[in-house]
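for ur thesis appendix - polynucleotide adenylyltransferase. copy paste whatever u need, i formatted it the way the template wanted (i think)
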Amino acid sequence: MEDVIPIHGRGNFPTLDVKLKDLVQAVKDKLTAEGVSVRSFRLNGGVASYVLGTTNAQEFNDVDLIFGVDLSNQNELQKIRNCVLGCLVNFLPEGINKDKISSCSLKEAYVQKMVKVCNEHGDRWSLISLSHNTRKNIELKFVDKMKRQFEFSVDSFQIILDSLLTFYDISEAPMTEHFYPTIVAESLYGDFAEAWYHLDNKLIATRNPEEIRGGGLLKYCNLLVRGYTPANEIDIRTMERYMCSRFFIDFSDINQQRQKLEAYLVNHFNGDEDMKYEYLTTLYRVVDESTICLMGHERRQTLNLIHQLAYQVYMAQERKAQIKCVELHQLDQLNNLVIDQVFYGPFDTNGSSNQYYNYPMPSSSYHQISISSSCPYCPPFLHCS
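the 3d part is after this line
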């Protein structure tokens, strides 16, 4: 909470360097002034797991903060939006004429996304995500009711920080090793000790994956490639089938699947091409082995989408390796050096580089068009059943 976190602006807008505690307190004060009561304030999800975990804990992608509020009145959502944008003005550097900056301009400059959910299941919550160039966005969630707030036991933790905010308000003495407020953490998984054991030992477990939007499929494959393994008590094959079924219910159209998958790759594997390829091969395997709810051509369309994305990553790595190879030859010629051996991957001039990967995804020859395919829903290189 004491760390300075940058909120990056688009265009000519400057970066806002804010302490998390100052941002939270400013938002809370503005909400209170507007008549919006804040029940509690919590650190949620991956960042809470990171704080509670040991050295084995997964890295977090976003700083997920939850404000418990009453959203029974739709007007409260507009108040919340205005309060958050109004707080950003206060963090602008000195010398900027703040009176001339509209809330619309602030939204375009600093807000990554805004989400509002009010559905028939009773969910009422809103999200305002503040931009960060390395994708560690500050996500402010304003929650009245949310039926499902976690995907897996390892990200089910919430740290209740009301006592910490009170400490900042009333204490003039700084926090020390022997002087600090008591902080309470809980697990929405239901069993804190079991969830913490899963976190400490990098185990995968969940309850009722069919209740999760997207089934938790993308997060599950992410955990697998980061070294997590299914807990012993989990029927992994049944769980994978539930996850795949719910994913294809929520994202039934191939364009929706592409949009969701591409956004997930950008947010979770930005710049890590090797891990991205391993993730796509893992996702391909799970979808291939555990999808039972799709027609034949729909299943092949999805598998082909995953394969195409993996192939793009693979070829990008090949091009980088080729460039490095050329640079080494140029270095050899310029400096009159003799290079004995160079080890790198996955580029292989003999064409045997497919052995570099574990799961047998379709080869690049799948991109050759076959005239015999006649199904209008399938790519021309896949045979329709």
